[in-house]
Amino acid sequence: MANESPLRRIGVPLRRQSDRPKRRFRRGVSLLPSLFTLANMFCGYACVVYSMRGEYETAAPFIGIAIVLDMLDGRIARLTGTSSEFGLQLDSLADAISFGVAPAIMSYAWGLEPLGRLGMFSGFLFVSAAVLRLARFNIQSAAGGDKRYFVGMPSPAAAAIPAATVYLFSDRITDYRAALPVLAMVLGPALLMVSTIRFRSFKTIDLQMRRSYTVLFLIAAVMVAVATHIRIALAVTAYAYLSSAFIGMAMTRLRHRGGQPATSAGPHDTP
């Protein structure tokens, strides 16, 4: 026939579009890391519920538990070889609740409510910054980069600031003037989350590497501090990590200035 395909003439079988094997997508989810992610999300939900009840001393520790669960689910997924795109998206949605919505509502119910609309929109800015931070982290993780540092304050560390503060001072704030410092507690971490300031990541620390005995002693001292004065120890840890980025920036600038010759100072030098 005139319209017969040349390939069919020489005996090459042709396969129709409908006969081609379709790509099968993997169904189901990895149960173990997903359970940790769901537990993380439950902690955020519980924090919201207890905050609405006015039980801030109970609500704040749920954010701390969520931080621990968030660190575990990723490590378990990597150890068991069950990392997936679904798990990444589920983890981001859970973090948006536990480290965005939950600390914002807790902060508003605890200390921002006397400020009226200013307090309400300040909490919304914290939620917005957390969601933007998580979206940017997903994009940067896919593109690769220096895994030793986070660009912007991580959302769990930002949520630890209001959580540790409320846990340390659990009495509700009702005075307008006393509520003003709460704005800094909420807006400060929010701005740091969307900034380009680098924060140290502890994911690349090799626990099998040999350390000096001083490091082991310091770890023991931290454990004693947490066991005896847990509220103060958690607050110091949260604010110390927030300050670590600025301390690192100051030390870097001092090293650069110390390495420059005294005669090279001029109007075009980088401050």
Give the helices and strands, then pairings:
Blueprint: H1 6-9, H2 31-53, H3 56-80, H4 85-112, H5 117-143, E1 149-151, H6 155-168, H7 176-193, E2 198-200, H8 213-228, H9 230-259
Antiparallel strand pairs: 1-2
Task: Report what the structure shows.
- By secondary structure, the protein is mainly alpha-helical.
- It has one domain (about 30-260): Four Helix Bundle (Hemerythrin (Met), subunit A), CATH 1.20.120.1760.
- Helices cover about 70% and strands about 0% of the residues.
- It is built from 9 helices and 2 strands; from the N terminus they run H-H-H-H-H-E-H-H-E-H-H.
- It has a two-stranded antiparallel ribbon.
- Helix 2 packs parallel to helix 4 (about 85-110) and helix 4 (about 85-110) runs antiparallel to helix 7.
- It is globular and about 50 Å long.
- The termini are far apart.
